[in-house]
Amino acid sequence: MNIEKYDLAIIGSGSGNSLITPYWDDRKVAIIDAGIFGGTCLNAGCIPTKMFAYPAQLASTPQQVAPLGIDMAFESADWPEIRDRIFSRIDAISAGGKRYRDVELEHTTLITEEVHFSGPKQLTSQTGRVLEADQIVIAAGSRPSFPSVPGVHLPGVHTSETVMRLPELPKRIIIVGGKYIGSEFAAIFAGLGAEVIQVNRSGRLLSSHDHTISDEFTRVASGHWQLEMNQTLHSIEQEGHQLRVNVSETGGNLNEISGTYTSDVVLLATGREPNTDRMNLEAAGIDTFNDFIARDEYLRVLSNDEPVEGVWAIGDIANDQMLKHVANHEQRVVSHNMEHPDNMKPDTLDAIPAGVFTRPQIATVGLTEDQAKIQYGSEAITTKIQAYGDTAYGWAMEDSDGFVKLIANTSTGKLLGAHIMGPEATNLLQPVIMAMSFGITAHQMARGQYWIHPAMAEVVENALLGLDVPESGLL
Ligand SMILES: Cc1cc2nc3c(=O)[nH]c(=O)nc-3n(C[C@H](O)[C@H](O)[C@H](O)COP(=O)(O)OP(=O)(O)OC[C@H]3O[C@@H](n4cnc5c(N)ncnc54)[C@H](O)[C@@H]3O)c2cc1C
Ligand SMILES: NC(=O)c1ccc[n+]([C@@H]2O[C@H](COP(=O)([O-])OP(=O)(O)OC[C@H]3O[C@@H](n4cnc5c(N)ncnc54)[C@H](O)[C@@H]3O)[C@@H](O)[C@H]2O)c1
């Protein structure tokens, strides 16, 4: 048997691609991806969704400026033009990255086949290529999960992998799912002029977020598109050119159809599952935890609870947060640890933020109020909700929905969580992430710097000053 030998083999060209640092220039590297080069974020995730979310947000400008005395009208969105602008850029980046690894670099070998483990340090491809490597990094990501009900594979039923390449803007779209993906696409399609029905299993959108965010977002979103709450998908049927989406009442008899909606296109945004089942991990004895690969703090995979030297995992296949900035950080940890085996560093970042680029935008970091109460006790925490509308820039915007919610420890003054809904939420949150990451207290953050007046960020300053925390001595 011909066994190909490598110094490093990487399964997955998303975050895995960045593992090929100059350290590997004079070493042999295999990068393996059976899908589109560059992975989910580039091709079907963060990047194209945000490139759609931005024009969709601009398209809603007339509603935002109406209270300011400006009359504007939204006429139409040219879906093919928007789509082609986005994918002509993205497809070229993916093709360029693929060519670079495949053709231009001598020390890298690109394998465009499905692989699985056939031994502790051995991989076998679909066509029978056998690879062995001193270091193996599993960066094989996740994929959309489908509810096990009839009709989910009918033509016209899409996931985030395909819906952005639709030939035209659907007149009406039913979106099943009420968290990140469902809420981002609801804002995109509604903003661009489609009729959106969002079907949600529970009674609240973004139900894992802080309850104030979840409640307020549900309220505001219901004014932007149609929400059908407490509905569980029962089945999807073809009805001529239309799709019938049948739902059951959540908590009721799930075999009984309690409602039906019809549309041209259905988007399933019903979660993502890690690609662990594609890896034959048993052949390498790799442990899993809730279907994710189990790791130690250096991001080495575990086998019978013990770290395996030279086998690592990063990104969605190992981290249930399923966020690109988390995968990127893990890539840097694993790069360092592979390149400095005598000075390995653990993955220690814990203030993990996330943005939901919906309408209005949402950003969050740290504990929700409920989590903080459980962890510290109600009396040990202080919260403040500051409305954008009660600050000078909020008056300028005539904002009536946005707010910043902060949670801090009453005795240490440290921030425990921050949750923002409103314009530029993701940008407003970044200094709070910095304070949490570097241990700056709420009062130090409020009073240890100038806040530009009267900028939008004063909503964060005012929220900080509203917390019941010890003073830092700063003026
Ligand atoms: C619609 C959408 C929007 C998103 N938006 C954001 C956002 O705004 N911000 C954010 O932080 N995150 C976002 N995410 C999440 C983000 O995209 C992921 O966290 C990130 O892409 C994960 O990267 P990864 O390297 O772990 O995996 P991936 O980039 O998915 O790479 C894994 C690769 O492995 C390949 N592969 C899998 N199994 C095998 C096998 N057996 N053999 C060969 N190849 C294999 C796949 O083809 C794939 O290309 C979004 C996700 C989606 C779906
Ligand atoms: N902006 C971002 O950072 C971003 C954007 C998109 C995705 N992501 C990542 O991708 C991951 C997946 O996101 P997601 O929103 O698809 O999944 P999710 O698991 O967060 O939410 C799935 C939704 O589908 C609903 N659902 C599941 N089965 C259902 C059924 N049978 N009937 C009705 N509803 C059903 C759930 O109740 C839930 O609302 C997340 O972990 C997220 O971190 C991040």
Q: Looking at the structure, what is the overall shape?
A: globular
Helix tally equals 12
Ligands bound, unique:
flavin-adenine dinucleotide, nicotinamide-adenine-dinucleotide
The biggest beta sheet is recorded as: 8 strands, mixed
Under CATH, the topology of the largest domain is which? FAD/NAD(P)-binding domain
CATH H-level superfamily of the largest domain: FAD/NAD(P)-binding domain
Mean pLDDT equals 98
The gyration radius over C-alpha positions equals: 24 Å
Pfam family, one: Pyr_redox_2
Keywords: Disulfide bond, FAD, Flavoprotein, NAD, Oxidoreductase, Redox-active center
Cofactor: FAD
InterPro entries: Class-I_Pyr_Nuc-Dis_Oxidored, FAD/NAD-bd_sf, FAD/NAD-binding_dom, FAD/NAD-linked_Rdtase_dimer_sf, Pyr_nuc-diS_OxRdtase, Pyr_nucl-diS_OxRdtase_dimer, Pyr_OxRdtase_I_AS
How would you describe what is shown here?
Keywords: Disulfide bond, FAD, Flavoprotein, NAD, Oxidoreductase, Redox-active center. Belongs to the class-I pyridine nucleotide-disulfide oxidoreductase family. It comes from Yaniella flava. Its cofactor is FAD. This is Mycothione reductase. The protein is α/β, with parallel strands linked by helices and 475 residues long. The protein has three domains: 209 residues, 3-Layer(bba) Sandwich (FAD/NAD(P)-binding domain); 114 residues, FAD/NAD(P)-binding domain (3-Layer(bba) Sandwich); 106 residues, FAD/NAD-linked reductase, C-terminal dimerisation domain (Enolase-like, domain 1). It contains twelve helices and 25 strands. Strands 1, 2, 3, 4, 5, 6, 19 and 20 form an eight-stranded mixed beta sheet that branches. A five-stranded parallel beta sheet has the order 8-15-9-10-11, with helices on one face. A hairpin with a 5-residue loop joins strand 21 and strand 22. Helix 2 runs antiparallel to helix 4 and helix 2 crosses helix 5. The longest helix is centred in the N-terminal third of the chain and has 26 residues. It is globular, with a radius of gyration of 24 Å. It starts with a strand and ends in a 10-residue tail after the last helix. It binds flavin-adenine dinucleotide and nicotinamide-adenine-dinucleotide. Nicotinamide-adenine-dinucleotide binds next to helix 5, strand 12 and strand 21.
